[in-house]
Write a structure and sequence with these properties.
Strand order of the largest sheet: 5-4-3-7-6
Number of helices: 4
Distance between the termini: 33 Å
Order of helices and strands: EHHEEEEHEEH
Shape: globular
Strand content: 25-35%
Largest sheet: 5 strands, mixed
Radius of gyration: 14 Å
């Protein structure tokens, strides 16, 4: 995947993530510069303007593996909410940073346990706080 897809962030997610990044060191989070670059290139909108097809913080997303058609769901969460559950991925994980701001139909490469990558497509947003009117989260 040579070009990065456009990403959209809510101003609320942007502000919270910007504060989070300011509070941690590069040594504590080696992906800090990459996530900051994603924030810097994002189109930032008011939460009420976020399309319902965009992955925002606390969104639950259904993915489909291109090679097998198998689907799975994950929720993108802040580090404090990452409890080690298989269905949650922290924004500080490489995959979490890659998901933020993508839209239904976008594809990303996902690290495979034991090495290699698989390509997955965002198939559906099962829950998005902005669409649900959950602006207090």
């Amino acid at each position: 995947m040579n070009s990065k897809p456009n990403i959209v962030l809510s101003s609320q997610d942007y502000d919270r993530l910007d504060s989070l990044l300011a509070s941690i060191s590069e040594t504590a989070f080696p992906g800090k510069a990459a996530l900051q670059a994603e924030l810097d290139r994002a189109e930032v909108l008011d939460p009420e303007q976020i399309p319902p097809t965009v992955v925002t913080m606390n969104s639950t997303v259904r993915f489909v593996m291109d090679s097998t058609g198998e689907s799975f769901c994950m929720t993108l969460v802040y580090p404090k909410d990452s409890t080690g559950q298989a269905d949650k991925v922290s924004i500080l994980a490489p995959v979490g940073s890659a998901l933020l701001g993508l839209s239904v139909g976008d594809q990303i490469e996902w690290p495979r346990p034991g090495g290699g990558v698989i390509r997955v497509r965002i198939d559906e947003i099962l829950y998005q706080p902005e669409s649900a009117g959950d602006f207090h989260r």
